[in-house]
Amino acid sequence: MGYGSIKAYLVKPASGAGKWPGVVVVHENRGLNPYIEDVARRLGVAGFLALAPDGLTPLGGYPAPMKQG
């Protein structure tokens, strides 16, 4: 297709301005879940610009957690 928009989680380092090294955080088959967001936040704390795109945006995004039982 090649058009449309996609949701993503962007984290910038809190300190300093200018150019930062960047990392793209790719999720597994469950989408952009809280764990992947945490990985991006930890990279931001380490001084990286982190982008975690949600590849499941066209399908509605991260699904609700599965119930155990």
Walkthrough of the structure:
With 69 residues, this protein is of the alpha+beta class. The chain is built from 1 helix and 3 strands; from the N terminus they run E-E-H-E. Strands 1-3-2 form a 3-stranded mixed β-sheet, with helices on one face. The longest helix has 12 residues.
The largest beta-sheet arranges its strands as 1-3-2
Helix share, percent: 10-25%
Largest sheet entry: 3 strands, mixed
Assembly form of the protein? single chain
Report the strand count.
3
The low-confidence parts are none
**Principal-axis shape:** flat
Beta fraction: 15-25%
What is the arithmetic mean of pLDDT? 85
| Radius of gyration, in angstroms, nearest whole number | 14 Å
Order of helices and strands: EEHE
SSE class: alpha+beta
Count of discrete alpha- or pi-helical segments spanning 4 or more residues: 1
Q: Please give the alpha-carbon distance between the first and last residues.
A: 39 Å
Features:
alpha+beta, 1 helix, 69 residues, flat
Layout: helices, strands, pairs:
Blueprint: E1 8-11, E2 22-24, H1 34-45, E3 49-53
Please summarize what this structure is:
With 69 residues, the protein is of the alpha+beta class. It contains 1 helix and 3 strands; from the N terminus they run E-E-H-E.
